Amino acid sequence: MAVETAEATEAARQAMGGIGVSLARKEDARFIHGQGHYVDDVVLPGMLHMVIVRSPHAHARIKGIDSSAAMAIPGVIAVVTGELLAQHNLAWMPTLSGDTQAVLATDKVRFQGQEVACVIAETKYIAEDAAALVSVDYEPLQAITTPQQAIEPGAIVIRDEKEGQTDNKIYHWEAGDKDATDAAFARAAKVVSLETFYPRCHPAPLETCGCVADLDPVTGNATIYMTSQAPHAHRTLFAIVAGLPEEKIRIISPDLGGGFGNKVPIYPGYVVATAASLLIGRPVKWIEDRTDNLISTGFARDYYMDGSVAIDDSGKFIGLRVNLPATTGHSSRMRNRASSRPASSTS
After folding, report:
1. Mean pLDDT of each 10-residue bin along the chain, 347 residues long
2. End-to-end CA distance of the chain
3. Which CATH architecture fits 42-143+203-296?
4. Do 42-143+203-296 and 147-157+168-202+299-340 show the same overall fold?
5. What fold does the segment set 147-157+168-202+299-340 form as a domain?
6. Distance separating alpha carbons of residues 185 and 321, to the nearest angstrom
7. The pTM is what?
8. Could you tell me which residues come within 8 angstroms of residue 106 by beta carbon, excluding any fewer than 6 positions away?
């Protein structure tokens, strides 16, 4: 009798659902049968293909770009440079963190893999061949690879295009009660410290980033198929960059082959493909290859962590202090965190 009651209770719990109950997956059958629909599956009439030319240097001045050999290849429609985008006020764009980012580099490159030019062609194979023929004259400059180098006296300034920027400190964040933290450490029976490095990692989704931009030059309506984890935020930024009303922009995010935060930012490829579609009057597809994705899209971690814990006589943690310089590329944000707990608290 007890067994029957337990079985009935479990059956009722399973029927009700909730925590601890396995849910039947609804999407698997479509993917198992090869019926997924990703951005690279989108094919539109008259669609062109775009490939990005990237910098091999981490920091270098651009002295000139020669695209004549690329333009001589049959099937190449255009080679887009930062200078061309600047003529349309599209050379720079805002980021989701309130900073700015070059769409295509104009004066200099600020990280290895930065976008320098884009080739638009009838097929991706033609675009790839033409991109290899775009010749960029670089003047290499000193590179910075750690936050320690970035804050050394006399360090070269990476974001020197920003008005009033005299050093490489881009972002400072502090949280907690500094005075209470200092007091906790002053009365601590013991302080334990650890200095460690949390290496950079990359989300590396199976599907790389990409888009298909289709702008109707008659109506001004834009339909953009994107590998997007944040389509509403992307629509807002597209409106800001392109000067289009948000109601004129439709972002379609089909099946996503992984993201892990990698597909939240707005990448220059999205903007250039959209601008090219507007100027040429045909849909433009841009799909990263794996190298593009690994060297130019958002990564994680890369923290140099210096932390200390204040401990009282009973072994309770009464304070925590962390200094965390973070390397986040050409838009580096220096973070300094301090937090504490009252002596009576536990953690």
Report:
1. 68 77 84 94 98 97 98 98 93 84 95 97 98 98 92 94 89 88 96 95 95 92 95 91 90 95 92 93 97 91 92 95 83 35 31
2. 46
3. Alpha-Beta Complex (3.90)
4. no
5. Aldehyde Oxidoreductase; domain 4 (3.30.365)
6. 9
7. 0.86
8. 62, 82, 83, 86, 91
